[in-house]
Design a protein that fits this description.
Elements: H1 2-7, E1 8-9, E2 12-13, H2 20-23, E3 32-33, E4 37-39, H3 44-53, E5 58-63, E6 66-72, H4 73-81, H5 91-94, E7 101-103, H6 108-118, E8 122-126, E9 132-137, H7 138-145
Parallel strand pairs: 4-5, 7-8
Antiparallel strand pairs: 1-2, 3-9, 5-6, 8-9
Length: 147
């Protein structure tokens, strides 16, 4: 722990600088277009394949009229930890239905604050018509604001 503290300067690792200009850019500049999706009836095994195949930590869950939730790596770990059968258990049993969204014009820093305040690591991004068009992770936000 002392090594970590020694590398910090005002809470920011030495060599990393907060990029204020990037923090004010619209979130659409860093969002993942056409995020990977799964269906509510898919198995958790299907989710693991999609997560690995798309090199992502979360997937949007599709419904008849658009995304109805999100499922993440953490949801899979929770299912396994409590004895869930990932071959048989369906996405709908583990997905988060309280989809946190932001407008594609919101500043990157504001979306990062939304994540912190909401306790989530992924935010769905909606366009000016209200359609979900992307997904942003906490890592995306940090990569954008740390120069």
């Amino acid at each position: 722990m002392d090594d970590v503290r020694a590398q910090l300067s005002d809470g920011v690792p030495m060599g990393d600088v907060l990029d204020g200009a990037a923090a004010e850019q619209p979130i659409r500049t860093i969002m993942r277009d056409r995020p990977a999706t799964v269906e509510q009836h898919d198995s958790l095994r299907d989710v693991t394949r999609e997560l690995a195949g798309n090199d992502t930590g979360a997937l949007l869950v599709s419904g008849p009229i658009g995304p109805v939730g999100v499922i993440s790596e953490r949801d899979i770990v929770t299912a396994v930890a409590f004895g869930g059968d990932i071959e048989r258990e369906q996405v709908r049993t583990m997905m988060s239905v309280d989809l946190v969204t932001a407008a594609d014009t919101d500043p990157i820093a504001a979306v990062g604050r939304l994540m912190v305040d909401s306790g989530v690591r992924h935010v769905a991004i909606r366009d000016d018509h209200g359609r979900i068009t992307g997904l942003v992770s906490m890592r995306d936000v940090l990569d954008a604001v740390l120069a």
